[in-house]
TrEMBL record:
Span of domain Histidine kinase: 207-405
Coiled coil stretches, renumbered: 171-198
Protein's recorded name: histidine kinase
One annotated GO molecular function: kinase activity
Transmembrane segments: 12-32, 38-57, 94-110, 153-175
Reaction equation(s) it catalyzes: ATP + protein L-histidine = ADP + protein N-phospho-L-histidine
EC number of this enzyme: 2.7.13.3
InterPro entries cross-referenced by the UniProt entry: 2C_sensor_his_kinase, HATPase_C_sf, HATPase_dom, His_kinase_dom
Source organism of the structure: Thalassolituus marinus
Keyword Transferase: yes
Length: 409
């Protein structure tokens, strides 16, 4: 709403500029036809200049609150009343501008403030019907009643034209600003929902990791006891494998805890060395995984975070498990963005792509949240993840990350 009020005040400054130009032409017309006692009206018109400058500057550089807009509208209402008093009062067709100010207040201000503006406008209009300075010309004796009536009709026609222009330009601008604000609110709600889902997943993961600690410790102690027994039924090789697997699980839990504490510690690093390190790490956890280098060496600096490390590993897993062929990797820099394409050329890969359903998977033992979590992690750094089917039946996963300035040594 605050951003909307700033935009509204900027639009109001443009509207004031147009109204000031109309008043300028009107007073010049009266001056040209020798209407008297216009000095005060000219002085009041000069006040419009600082008013529109202040509204334009405040709307662009300061946070506008509702009471700020109330003060602007009250001041302009009184300025308009002064101009009307010296130019015919309620007989002046430009009294229509009261309605424009009421529309602006009703659109943008709370009901109480709008009622205040309406009450002030009604009081001013009522006073102008009784007390005002009639337009008197030095040549009035030569002007008939018909000529004065024609002048009033011309003013009414001009009033209608100006009203139509204001309605078809000013009001749609305000409505589009309101729609844009509602769209931003909708996106913020979606982001909040996504964050709540991620917090829920993280809470469950942390609880599960904590619960796994005790069983793993128990298994470690039992395996140590078995190793001290001479007649245990396990071979030395099987016992060694079991102890290694338990130690690996405990080490993974410890790494998970350390990564969680440093998840939001970000920096900047070169994209190609980072990708090479992660591919080596991925090969250790997936000895049978294969990839083809289609050009991953690319000079680019991107954000560094454990969240991005895990996101890329998840996406590599998904690509490798989507088909039986080696995945193909290619990176490039396009429009200040680092792009990494992970392609699975297997003709059956496209049929295994998740159809954008959260927490569902077509893997035999998968939970389907890997892609969702990877996308959420990449989005935190201004990037995106796009997964799409290829015409040949394969799949393509594209990661995009904005370039970062190299860290100073």
């Amino acid at each position: 709403m605050k951003q909307n009020l700033n935009l509204l005040l900027q639009r109001l400054a443009l509207l004031r500029l147009s109204i000031a130009m109309v008043w300028l032409m009107f007073l010049a017309y009266l001056q040209f036809h020798n209407f008297a006692n216009l000095q005060v009206a000219w002085a009041l018109l000069v006040v419009y200049l600082p008013l529109l400058l202040i509204s334009g500057w405040q709307g662009a550089h300061r946070e506008v609150r509702e009471w700020h807009l109330l003060v602007h509208l009250v001041f302009e209402t009184q300025l308009l009343t002064g101009l009307l008093y010296f130019t015919g009062g309620a007989t002046n067709p430009f009294i229509f501008y009261f309605l424009v100010l009421l529309v602006v207040s009703a659109y943008s201000l709370p009901a109480l403030y709008s009622w205040w503006i309406a009450a002030i406008a009604v009081v001013d209009y009522s006073l102008l019907t009784q007390w005002f300075q009639p337009l008197m010309s030095h040549q009035m004796h030569s002007m008939s009643g018909t000529s004065l009536f024609d002048l009033h009709l011309a003013g009414m026609w001009l009033t209608f034209v100006i009203s139509a222009l204001i309605v078809i330009t000013f009001i749609p601008l305000l409505l589009r600003a309101k729609e844009q604000q509602e769209q931003e609110i909708h996106e913020l709600r979606e982001q909040q929902l996504k964050n709540e889902q991620l917090i829920g997943i993280a809470t469950l993961a942390a609880g599960t990791a904590h619960e796994m600690g005790t069983p793993l410790m128990t298994m470690h102690m039992i395996l140590d006891d078995i190793a001290q027994q001479e007649d245990h039924p396990l071979t030395k090789r099987d016992l060694h494998i079991l102890r290694e697997q338990v130690a690996l699980c405990r080490q993974s839990l410890q790494q998970l805890a350390n990564a969680g504490r440093s998840a939001h510690e970000t920096g900047v690093h070169e994209a190609h060395p980072w990708l090479a390190r992660l591919l080596h790490r991925w090969r250790l956890s997936h000895p049978n995984a294969l990839w083809v280098d289609d050009g991953i060496e690319c000079a680019a600096c991107i954000a560094a975070s454990p969240l991005l490390d895990q996101a890329l590993l998840n996406l590599l897993d998904n690509a490798a498990e989507a088909g039986q062929q080696p995945i193909r990797l290619h990176s490039a820099v396009v429009n200040n963005t680092w792009l990494l394409n992970i392609a699975q050329p297997d003709p059956t890969a496209a049929s295994r792509i998740q159809q954008q359903r959260l927490f569902s998977s077509q893997k035999e033992n998968g939970m389907g949240i890997g892609l969702y979590l990877s996308n959420a992690s990449v989005e935190q750094f201004g990037g995106t993840v796009h997964l799409q089917a290829q015409p040949n039946g394969g799949s393509l996963c594209q990661i995009s990350l904005p370039l970062s300035a190299p860290e100073k040594q």
